Structures are given as structure tokens and as C-alpha cells.
Amino acid sequence: MPKRNQCAPTWLKTFLHHRGGGVSVLAALSAVGVIGMASFAVDLNRGYETMVANQRVADMAALAAGVAYSAAKNETILQPTAQDLARVNGITTGTVVAQLVTDVPTPGAKAVQVTITVPMTVTLGRVLGIGAGYPVKTVATASLATQSTAGCIVGLANSGKAIETQGGASINAPACAVAGVGTVANNGNAISAKNIISGAGDIVNNYGTLAADLLRYAGSFTNPSWNNNVPGADKRVQQSSTVADPLADNLDLSSARSLIGNWRAPAALSNPTTPSGGAVWSFSGSPSLAVAGFRRGNSSNFTVPAGNYTIDSMDASGGVSVTFSAGSTVTVARGVAISGGATVVFGNGTYRINGGFTGRDVTFGDGELSIGQGTVSLGGTNRIGTGPVTINAPLSLGGGTTLAIGAGAHAFGGISVGGGSWLTMGDGSLDVAGGVSVGGGSTIIAGAGNVTISNPGDRAIFVDGGAYFFMGDGLFSANGSIVTGGGSRLVFGKTANHLINGDLSASGAVLFGAGRYTIKGGFANGTGGANNGTPSWPYTSPITNQTWGTSLEGVSVGDADMAGVNVSLILSGTVNLGGGAKTMLIAPGTTTNGGAIADILIDSLTSADTSWSAGATNVFSGAVHLPNSALTSSGGNSTNSSTRCFMLVAYRVTLTGGATAGSTCTGLGTGAGGSGTVDLIS
User: Fold this and answer.
1) Cα–Cα distance between 397 and 405 in angstroms, integer?
2) Are residues 437 and 515 in the same domain?
3) Could you tell me the residue range of the domain that residue 524 belongs to?
4) For residue range 167-217, what is the model confidence (pLDDT) as tens digits?
5) Residue 35 sits in the same domain as residue 129
6) pTM of the predicted protein model
7) Which residues, in sequence order, are CB contacts of 515 under 8 Å at separation 6+?
8) Same domain, 137 and 175
9) Given the DSSP bridges, would you call strands 523-525 and 504-506 parallel, antiparallel or unpaired?
């Protein structure tokens, strides 16, 4: 059996056998201990330095593997991505393991975990001839942010409260995040979200409920000791986060905002050419010499044969009946006046009239009608056939007057319809160089075609209480504000971009045809029950039997007073909602060139405050983007997404007085934390 020291190296044997110089075995062993302690200290320092260096590599490997997985959605890409990055950064020994883990950092979430292990040799082991060593292990985890962690309610204020509930108000977004740069405070009923985040501030709860998989805050978490309606300590993380405007760099929004204030000029109006030198035409019981030959015997009926006629002025009275045969070209230099029960039928042809036109129960056939400056007023029942109609003066209909105009280009110096009257126009452009006014109980219906109205500095469109204005599909431009009264109905057609150079203020029911609405001003909805509490849509006109509001773009809108599907509203002002109206606005799923913008419902850079109040019920789908505006929802206002997605981004978000806001979906594809986002969490 070998002696105890036979396995020792030569220098140690020498120490053990030496008896001279006062060196004892104890001294020799002490020397070994001193040398070992020093060696272990060096080894520990080397291991620590290796661990720090490898941690940086592991972090980068986890992030790189996470990004690769987010793009490929395939776990097989994790291992080679992490190994390649580790090798490039100098780790050529040991092992690199990359794997997908679940329920990290919160239940239901996923993350990529990278573990790097390298061997370290103990120096004393080499001294003693023993292969001693230990592993240095580093672990990094990168979360895979899915749509379930996207922010639905975002407050951008970096001081004070970015998001706050008060009184009986609540926020319900169980599948996505409620996030503020500053403090998130529940001084109301509840905030329910996938995550509740204060990027640079605190999370504060009072008597209400916080429900979330994760609370993350930079400052502190405050909650009364008696209130257990909050996530447990294991779901609270004191850590700063980056909460930013997800739409700050959206190029489509920047392009759309550049068009705010734009408008198109209506077709230029001018007086028709009416040569002078014609005779006076007077149809009556005692007709003028110029028309006496058109009389049928001794009757009160007159028939003008086809021909070209130059007339100085024309009148008809005394119950006579006048018919211009088809195929005529007629010019009148100094006006037409029809009165006293007379009826006039202008057959198919060309009619150019200066000096004004007054009459009732008038019919024009197909062809061209051009009326110059002067008073233009109709009564009774009137009709104008297919063809271009130009009236270089305001058209006024009152007292139950009706006017049906066929298809063609329609141009007016202004339109005023009141007193229970109505005006219908077939397909074709509508140009109005002045305002359009519809009085109570009256209606205007325009067919498909471009609508261009200009009344700068005033109302381009005014629809009074109980009045209706319906437009068909086509380009739309209004230079001036648009105002509607209670109980009114207004329908915009479908087009890429509706240009409104003024405010849009609606107190009645509105249908927004698909497309973008570029508004130089604010949008106010004070409908207040547009039709005395009964559903505003659908509506069928007794005039044309047309029905509006059954659905828009295949979506039923019959429960809404104000509705738009596949719409984006781009404003310079803000959006104030009130009056108890039911509003349904749905953003488009895709971007249209020069038109609606995917997932964007409302956008404004205004710093003016925004108010949603007075019991209004809103179903919004898409992003409401008001990054500089403090939004207050009060008075029982309810804003939610129904079964769709809703995102609200504002400078401050305050819900008070029983107001509610919520989203039932996991997020929008607007760049607010989609599946391509990877966050290093450990």
C-alpha cells in the first residue's frame, strides 16, 4: 500500500520530508492552503468576468433568435440562430441551447430562452495534478410580444396621470394592454386588461379593482391594505417601460394630414348667351302678337312648333296651357314669369334664359337648360329631364314645391329647399357655387356623381331639424362647414377622400359612405336621439322609394344614429361626442391609395381638449389617435368595440361619472406591439 504522500508532486514531497531550517509539516501544509486560497480567488474572478461577458452574448442571442422566430414562426430556427451569434462573438467552446418557453413572463405568453454554458478549470486542480473545474452558465430570455400584449388604451402624458378612471367609470380591455407613459390611476370602478403598464410613473388603485396578468411600473404600486381586488405580488414588476405613440411615424397619416384644408372649386358658372332684338311673348287670354298664331282656335291652349326662337321676355298667366314642341332652341333675354294658374311644358330641346325665372307646375324635357343670374323660384310640381342643367343663381323651392331633375351635370349658384318641399336629381355631377340649405320637413336627393359645394366662411351644407339630404357615390368637396339639426338625416356617398374645408357638426342622423374624410376643423356629434328615440336607420323615402341605412359595406347599421364603415376621419380639430346618440364607426382593414387608411378611424394632432359625454353610445373599430389632446369621457358615455378592435391613443385619458371604455380584441395591426416585437426581460 503506497504511502499517503506518494501521489504528491516532487516539490510537495520535499516539503513533507524536510526537517531543517525550522520548516515543519504544518508550515508546508499552511503554504499549500495559502496558495489554494489565492488560486481560488483568481478562479472566481475569472469565472465572474466570463459570466458577465457571456451574459451580453446570451442577451443578443435571445433577441436574435426571438426576432427570427417572430418572422419564421418555426422553432427549428432558434438553435442555429443562437449558435451562430454566439460563435461570432467568440464563444467557441461549451454549449449553446435555445428553446421556446411558455407562460413567460405572464401566463399564456411565450418567450425564447438561450442558455450558454462554458467550462472553467480550477487553477489549484492543475497544481495538484487533478482535473478540477466548474461550469459558467448564463441564461437570457426574450419575450415574444403577441397581439395580446398590444396597447388598446394608451396615454402619452409623461407627468401626472396619463390614464385615470374616476367615480363609477371603468376600462375593460382583457385581451390587450392599458398603458401610460405617466401614472395609471384607478380611482373609479375598475381597470381590466391583459397588462397594466406605467412606463415612467406609478400604478395607483383606490377602492376599485385592477385585473391583469401583469402590473409593470417604474415608480411604485399604491393600493389600500384592505383592498384585495388587485393582482398578487408575483404579478407586479417594478420596471420602467417604453410607452410611445405607435402611430407617430405613420407615413399614410402624414400624407393625409397634408390635404387638410384642401377643396375643389365647383364648375364655373356664367350667364348663357341670349341675343337681344327678340319680341315679347305673352301667353294669356289676350296674347301678344308674337304668340297669337300659336293659339289653338279660341282656346287657352298654345302650341309652339319646333324651331329656333329669340325672345326678349316671356310670361304666361290666366290659366293658359303652353307647349313648346320638341326640337326647339329658345333664348330669352329678359326673364320668364309664369303665374295665374298657367302651365308651360318645354319639350325636348335647348333653352337659354337670362333675367330670372319664376313659375309653377313647369316641365322641361330632355336637353340643355341654362338660366342666368336673377331670381329663380318654382312652385307646385315641376320636372326637368335628362341633360345638363345650369342655374347661375340660387335655386329656391318653398311651400311644398317639388322638382325632379333627370341625369346629367347639375350646377347651381345655391340651393334652398324649405317648407316641406323636395328636390331630386338623377345621376351626374352636382356643383353649387354657394350653400345648400334644406329646411325642416324638406328633402334633397342626389344621384351618383361628384358633389362640389363652395360657400367659404359659411355653411356649405345646412340641414335643419327634420330635413333630409342624401348624396350618391362620387367625389365630394365642401368649402365651408357642414351643420345638421336634430331629427335630420344626412348621407355621404362613397369615394376615396371627402374634402371638408370647415367643421362637421351633426345633431341628426348621418351615414358616412366608405372612404377618408379630411376635415379642416372639428367633428361634433350631438345627435341626442336623432329621430325622437326611434331608430334612425334604415329609412325609405316616400319620394323615390329608395332605402338607406340597412347596411354599409355589408355591415348592418340599423341600430346606429351615425354610422360609417371603412372610414377614416383626419381632422385639424377634435372629436366631441354627446347627446345620447348611437354611433358606429368602423375603420378599413386595408389602405386605399389617396383614401381610407388601414386601422385608422380618427386622427388629429390638435391640442384642444376632447369630450365624449351626455350618454353617447359609441361602437368604434380602429384607432382613435389624438396624441396631443386630453380626452375626457363622462356622463355615462360608453365607447367599445363590440366584437371588433378598438385602440385609443391620447395625451391623457380620463373616464369619469360612470363612463366606460373597452376593447374585446387582442390589438390592431397599427404597429402598436404586433407579433414582430421582441422584448428582453431577463
Assistant:
1) 13
2) yes
3) 251-267+429-596
4) 998 999 888 889 999 999 999 999 999 899 999 999 999 999 999 988 999
5) yes
6) 0.78
7) 494, 495, 496, 497, 498, 566, 567, 568, 592, 595, 596
8) no
9) parallel
